[in-house]
Amino acid sequence: MQDKSSLPIGVFDSGIGGLTVVHSLLKLLPNENIIYFGDTARVPYGPKSPEAVRGYAKQDAHFLVSQNVKMIVIACNTVSAVALDVVQKESNVPVVGVIVPGAKSAIQSSRKKRIGVIGTKGTIASNAYTNAIRQFDSDAKVFGKACPLFVSLAEEGFINHKATEMIANEYLFSFKQEKIDTLVLGCTHYPILSEVIQKSVSEEVTLIDSGIAVAEEVKQLLEEKELQNRSKHKPNILFYVSDVPEKFTEVGERFLGMKMGKVRRAEGFLI
Ligand code: DGL
């Protein structure tokens, strides 16, 4: 039987944001080979219908399966929220989405069981985080809020910017009345803005990065399935996108926190 442990972990997202998840994976699992796919031709997924996102997710998963990966990580919260089953059906390898690990981490951190969730319109409308959190504790109170502008602000590099502060205060003020003690950053882009978000909701609120939570889940799963890469070679990190790579590289290095090297174009996604 083929030794699968040295095969790459496949990670995909609607575009650039999933690189924050790759950042968490590299920190926790520095020995793993990774193939990342960002669907830059069709981003953003957040405002699209669940049907459209499910169709895209099927093709994204198919691309990673064709690259012979040992596991698939859905870095995109919107896909994890509305199309986890599609990706599982399309794949012959274990699939991990960000929702359940993020929900688990939130419930573990919250003392008052009053939890806020922020994400794209699609993620919040799906109630996926609320349902997952309630699976862990049916008494938990969950308050969702879509914060679509955070995606553009993070990509523009408006990190500690007055405009971001104002928009954060506008989006997040209701969490003060709801007296949350934990806030899930339920979108790939939001960890980039965590300082501003933290300031806006107060220092007492614990922020949950679902990218960090999913990296921990992946580590555990690799151990359980004895799939950790034990090779002594420097791991390979490959990046594929569905549109031209230039902008992806420029913004992506900020999200990833390191140089990316060559970004390749995956064929067949542009209609
Ligand atoms: N990657 C998406 C998510 O985490 C955010 C960007 C988009 O709307 O496509 O939900």
Short description:
It is built from 12 helices and 10 strands. The chain is α/β, with parallel strands linked by helices. A 6-stranded parallel β-sheet has the order 4-3-1-2-9-10, sandwiched between helices. Strands 6-5-7-8 form a 4-stranded parallel β-sheet.
Question: So, CATH architecture of the largest domain?
Answer: 3-Layer(aba) Sandwich
Gross geometry = globular
What helical percentage do the residues reach?
Answer: 40-55%
Task: Compute the CA-based radius of gyration.
Answer: 18 Å
Global structural class? alpha/beta
User: Span from first to last CA?
Assistant: 39 Å
Largest sheet: 6 strands, parallel
CATH topology category name of the largest domain: Rossmann fold
- Strand coverage percent: 15-25%
Ligand types? D-glutamic acid
Order of helices and strands: EHEHEHEHEHHEHHHEHEHEHE
| Total helical segments | 12
What does this structure look like?
By secondary structure, the chain is an alpha/beta fold. The protein folds into 2 domains: 4-97 and 213-265, Rossmann fold (3-Layer(aba) Sandwich), CATH 3.40.50; 99-210, Rossmann fold (3-Layer(aba) Sandwich). Helix content is 46%, strand content 17%. Strand 1 (9-13), helix 1 and strand 2 (34-38) form a beta-alpha-beta unit. Helix 1 (19-28) packs across helix 11 (210-224), helix 4 crosses helix 6 (128-136) and helix 8 (162-172) packs across helix 10 (194-201). The longest helix has 17 residues, at 50-66. The chain is globular, with a radius of gyration of 18 Å. The N and C termini lie far apart (39 Å). D-glutamic acid (DGL) is lined by residues 13-15, 17, 43-46, 76-78, 119-120, 123, 151, 187-189.
